[in-house]
## 1
Amino acid sequence: MTCPLCLEQKAELFDQDKYRKYWKCHACGLIFVARDQLLSDQDEKKRYDSHQNSESDPGYRAYLTKLALLAEPFLNKGESGLDYGCGRTLVLEEILKERGFVVSSFDLYYYPDSELLSKKYDFIILSEVIEHLREPRETMIFLRGLLNPGGRFLIKTKPAPESVGEFSNWFYKRDLTHVQFFNENSFDELARLCQLQSPHYLGEDIFLFKE
Ligand SMILES: [Zn+2]
């Protein structure tokens, strides 16, 4: 079983439920679902279509405003950013624009403007995205190439519980579109791959990666 982050071929079966098996990489500690157990594109999109987030939902706006407020001290006004994997709405883009940033949004299913992936950015936000990536290594290395010198990643994802017992009961793994879960070691591996420093935790499951 090959780790989709560090490519190590040794992984042990960490947990399983009636839907999937979860493997843990010996080298970087990433917990991941085998790539032959991923949903089809069609089934994946169906699940995203059923997510309730919308512009008119004040709860969703408040949730993303929190992210913007935590990130803001590490950004400079006027900087350009990309909300990668924005989902069905442009709420985070709007919030950040109101706060003086130049922001675009990309989403494989809802805003697939590939032009945006040939530009450069001062920061790239992946809010509840990295746990969905089919090819986390390739995607993150690609996105790293879109960062300007001094660029940053802001990654929001729930860190994986260390114990199997906690993991087994963890709500986050029950979403079948979540296909890998990070811990401190796998975040360090991600940083190394992208030639960035180990992340700085900002709170609210947000991790800042910078040069
Ligand atoms: Zn690994």
## 2
Amino acid sequence: MTNTYLVPTLFGLEGIVARELGFLDAQNIKAYDGKVTFEGDFNTMARANIAMRSGERVLLVLGEFKAVTFDELFEGIKALPWEKYIGKDDCFPVKGYSLNSALFSVPDCQAIIKKAAVERLKKTYKTDWFDESGAKKQIQFSIQKDIVTVMLDTSGEGLHKRGYRVASKAAPLRETLAAAMVSLSRYRNGEIMLDPFCGSGTIGIEAALYATYTAPNLRRSFAAEKWSNIDAKVWQEERERAISKIKPTDCKIFCSDIDAEAVSMAGSNAKRAGVSKYIDFSVCDARDIKPTFEGGVIIANPPYGERLMEMEEAIRLYKSFGKVYKRFNNTRAYILTSHEDFESQFGIKADKNRKLYNGMIKCYLYQYYKNALESRK
Ligand SMILES: C[S@@+](CC[C@H](N)C(=O)[O-])C[C@H]1O[C@@H](n2cnc3c(N)ncnc32)[C@H](O)[C@@H]1O
């Protein structure tokens, strides 16, 4: 059975997520601001949950309709085939948001959606009472310009929660964003990679997962695994498929940080992710790094000066690290920071920069690649 799914994305990552879904054989992929939709069966949904690197979650779209009154909302919800998805004992809480719409009160919409779904299910299951003790079917709605979209969350915890990052210090990068940075860096299998501000190791770990074709969410579970309307063999098949794609690599990834405790946590995180043999962790001040390799790529998320240290200190660090980078030969660099004049501090104009959001913080990914790519020819 073909369904429509919606993947919320961080702003700026829509194209990357659409491309990833293409590699996973999703059909009819469409990218919009902050989301990507696709079509597929339950196997495609399970595959997206397990193997997508940069999408936030996979929502099963149940229906879409216009509503400007609570009556229209109630009737539109009641008309959906809830009994196909929600069993008698399932738990089905409702959450969502409304933007630029006549129905703007989210708590009221939540209550009406719940009431309408219950009304429909009462008839099917011939009961007035649902104790909701079974599997969780989180109903998620959005109302945008009066169009109501009703979905069920197949992922459960957000897909950035891979399960490997139990330990982190201040300001860890969201895993989905780190994976997108690796993808944007055109990181190639076997290449040397360096993150000199590694913190909890997210970028290095995501790079190792990418280089070994390892699905990032292979080791975690998903809400829809408990759904009785989806055969357990769907998940088994997709896990086996993901395992069959893993390829060992000879890539070498260097991760360092000035903070010894962070480096130790990063090492434990890499072990949990199953990629520690590809990553060399060390305690080092980025200002002291010597260019011990040629080519390769630096991918980094240095302190911004907003959360971790004073702005002036961050600027001094960018200046010093710019001098370090100039000593590297044919090495690309992809540096994420919220500083709008990073390039003048770093001392080199970026070939390109791209606006990305690290949580609520507007950042730019400064990309240095032209010289290095030229020398590859
Ligand atoms: C924004 S955090 C990086 C977070 C990391 N990407 C993660 O996902 O956990 C910046 C890191 O830079 C480190 N740092 C600050 N000054 C440094 C320096 N001079 N040399 C190396 N690392 C430094 C901090 O200890 C911190 O871990």
